[in-house]
Structures are given as structure tokens and as C-alpha cells.
Amino acid sequence: MTFKEIKDKLDLTDVAERLGYKIDKSKGTNTKWVTFNLGDPKAPMDTIMISTPYEGSPSDHRYFRHGYARSSDVIDFVRENLAQLGGNPALKDDAKHVWHIMMYLINGYSVKPIETPQVEKKEKKVFNIKDYDVNYYDPTTMAYALREGIFSPQGKLEYFFRRRAINDDTVINMAHMICTIRLKDRKFFNVGFPYISPETGEILGFELRGPKSERGKTFRGFTTGSNKSQSLWIADFSGMPRDAITHVLFFESALDAIAFSQARRSRIDYSKTVLVASGGGLSNDQLLLAKLTYPNAVLVDSFDNDLVGRLYGIKMSLIGEDKMSSVKNFVKDKETGIYHIILEDKDFDMKEEDLTLENLFKKAGWHRIKTMSQKAPLPYKDWNDVLMASVTKSPMCYGPTKTEWRKEVTK
After folding, report:
1. In angstroms, rounded to a whole number, what is the distance separating the alpha carbons of residues 49 and 36?
2. CA distances, 62 to each of 5, 67, 208, 221, 234 (Å)
3. Which of 41, 121, 199, 277 has its CA 20 to 30 A from that of 214?
4. CA-to-CA distance for 17 and 36, rounded, in angstroms?
5. 194 has which bridge partners?
6. For the chain, what is the largest distance between any 2 Cα atoms, rounded to a whole number of angstroms?
């Protein structure tokens, strides 16, 4: 029997259930992709989504996990679980061994469901600002990068922005949202951007940027324990009540927002506009927080001009226009190149080249009402690229390497 013939007979759902996976009815059973949990549904050891598990031919059934970019078939599932199916995990790439295990399953081989082990949970570290030295930018001491003081925290900060074509006036305007930061037991600083809870104003973490390594890569990350999903970097100069704000521009990083504020300074009405950054990802909670904080504002798509930015824009629009309270996932099948978009009560298959907000709204039968866009003009990826394009021949666009960045403070 060939693998193709095995796939026509061996049902993925049957194998999963025999291993102990159980359907999660709270997530719905009438959608194309149905959720199955292994172990305690409140804290499952594993969660998979199976396509139309009780319909059609077994060969049509596929599965995926959230966070993974492809779906797989029953053969891959057996390979993943060889040890629990009586096989040898070391032989997962041995086609003959996998074939024998699948034949056992077809012939009714009994599989013992996996018992949930008692694993001691590690306490998750929570961000504590007291663990850090934080120095906000002080525009009264202008020790610029080309003068002495370049390797002091203040000098590094100024050099960091100048090499990105962000000028002094822009940095001064954003001074209360820019800092240098380091752990108290560490010697070296990074540039930090505070992410706050829109509800309480409490700092829940910092977006970090550092020097370029000798390989040309720039350090970026977040402070340990940061609560990104419940916080935003916010530039609000309005001085007005939050319900007077009419536009909230969403960016992927604080640097993108700062670059935009310089590139479009004369076109922004700051009495009615707020700039926010999501920190390199975009959660449902961040979008809902922005809606609750600025109830009369339109959410504006200022994400990057790439596929990820396009997906963020779709997600923002669906939640911003009250089409969905959450957007669960965008999954790409590497074999077909098709994206499967899972919403609360709908799911779609769309080709990457067709994956636009307009096409998705049309397919769902919705009318696009409020969503606006302020993306960087093509061919630029983001607003920082727009600024950098004007200074590519300037030595200021080539920043210090990691070795230079870490030099001691000049006396």
C-alpha cells in the first residue's frame, strides 16, 4: 500500500483522538477548522486545528498549530507522535518505519492516550521598572554626536537618532517618550521607548533599540516581562480630552511613528491626532484598548508596506470597524500558497496576491466605512526609510558598531 493509499484510509482525526486529543466545543464545531486539545482544556499540553474533521475523505484532512505558517497531513502528524504510537522517534525520517506504524494504525493498533504529567509551573517574570536605570532625554544638554560626549548615554541617544535622519527638533518634541535604559547590574545602555497602559498610565515595559553589530544587524527587543499586549507607545500632544481625538495612527514601532511625525509634521493636526506603536506585533487587546481609550477616533493604518504590515492593517480594520472583536489567525499553506484566515464566525481561503482589505471585505459581504491609511509612499517600506533616503550619502546614517557603542563615558 502506498502512502497516498494510506492517506485515503487513515483518518487524521481518528489518530488524534486515539492519542487523547479532544474537540474544544467552546471554539465552535461548524467552522472549517476545528480546535482539538491534548490534556486539560484549561491548560492543554498541545492544541491543533483540524480541517473539517468529520466530513469528506480522510485524505482531505489537514492540521496546523497557531503560530506556524503551514498546515500538515496525517503523515506529518504520525511522524510527530512516533513515540506515543509505538515507533522510534529517531526514525521519523525513515519512510519505511513511518509506513509500518501507519499500517499498524490502519489495522486497529491500540494506542494508549497520553496522560497529562504534573509539571511544576515556573513563575513568569513580571516587568519591574525598579530593576532598571532609566534616563529620559534631556534637550537642555545638547552634547551632539560629533562633539565630545558621544559615548555618554545622552550622546549615544542623540547619535542614534541622527544616523536615522531624525533631526533635533523631532527628538526634542518626543523627549518625554525617549530614554536610555539598562538593568542596574549591567554596564551598557540601550535606547528605550516606554509602553504604557492607556487605562492607568503605568509603564508596562520598554521597546529597546541598540547598536549595529559588526555584521550590520541592529539590536531590537523588549525588557523582560513586558506586557506588550496590554500597552502601547503613545505620542499624544493634543492637551484635549481623549474623546476629542479623531484619529489614532498605528505604527509597528516607536521609531516609525517618530519618523512619520517629522516627515509629515506640517500635515498633522496634533490637537486631534495621536500616534501609537504596537511594538513589532499587534494584539487584539492593543486594538481594543485604543478603541476604548479614544472612543470617537478612527484607527489609521500606518503599518509597513510589506505582507506583515498588510495583515496588521486587515486586523486593525476588522476590529476598528466592529466587524470582529478578535482576529484569530492568518495561516499560510506552503504547499498551495493559500492563506487561511480565521475570524470569529467566518473563515476564508485567499491567495497572497489577493490578500487585501478590499478583497476580504468584499468576500465577507461587508462595506468598508471608516478605515484610513497613512502608509509610507512606495517604494519605501516604512517612514524611517523615507527619511533615510534623503541622507544615504551622509556619514551620519552609518552608526556606531557594537564595540564603539560600548566605550566608556568620556570624561
Report:
1. 6
2. 16, 16, 39, 34, 42
3. 277
4. 9
5. 206
6. 79
Residue whose C-alpha cell is 474623546: 243
Sheet hosting strand 329-333, strand order edge to edge: 329-333, 338-342, 347-351
Read out DSSP for 330-353? EEEETTTTEEEEE-SS-EEEEEGG
CB within 8 Å of 247: residues ≥ 6 apart:
272, 273, 274, 297, 298, 300, 372
Return the C-alpha cell found at 46: 498541545
pLDDT over 90 (residue 119): no
Give the per-residue pLDDT at 236.
93
Residue range 129-321+370-402 in CATH 3.40.50.1100: no
Under 8 Å between Cβ of 161 and 146: no
- DSSP assignment of 80-131 equals HTTTTTTS-GGGTT-HHHHHHHHHHHHTT---PPPPPP--PPPPPP---GGG
Q: Are 86 and 92 in contact (CB under 8 A)?
A: no
Cis peptide bond prior to 379, omega within 30° of 0? yes
Reading phi first (left if > 0) and then psi (alpha if -120 to 50, else beta), residue 405 is in alpha
Q: Please, which residues have CB within 8 angstroms of residue 96's CB and are 6 or more apart in sequence?
A: none
Interatomic CA distance for residues 349 and 298, integer angstroms = 28
Q: Chain centroid to CA 249: how far?
A: 17
- With CA atoms as reference, report the closest residue to 180 among 164, 199, 200, 159: 159
Cα four-point dihedral sign 304, 395, 211, 148: negative
| Cα-Cα-Cα-Cα dihedral sign, residues 82, 83, 89, 91 | negative
Query: Over the stretch 196-230, which tens digit does the pLDDT of each residue have?
Result: 999 899 999 999 987 666 666 778 889 999 999 99
What are residue 276's DSSP bridge partners?
234, 250
Q: Is the pLDDT of residue 19 over 80?
A: yes
Q: Is the pLDDT of residue 169 over 90?
A: no
Q: Give CA separation, 22 vs 26, 29, 56, 85, 331, in Å.
A: 12, 12, 20, 17, 22
Predicted pLDDT of residue 284: 87
Q: Where are the domains of the chain?
A: 3-106, 129-321+370-402
Residue 271's CB is within 10 A of a number of other CB atoms, namely: 12
User: C-alpha grid cell for residue 70?
Assistant: 503551514
Q: Which residues pair with 205 in a beta bridge?
A: 195
Classify strands 273-277 and 247-251 as parallel, antiparallel or unpaired: parallel
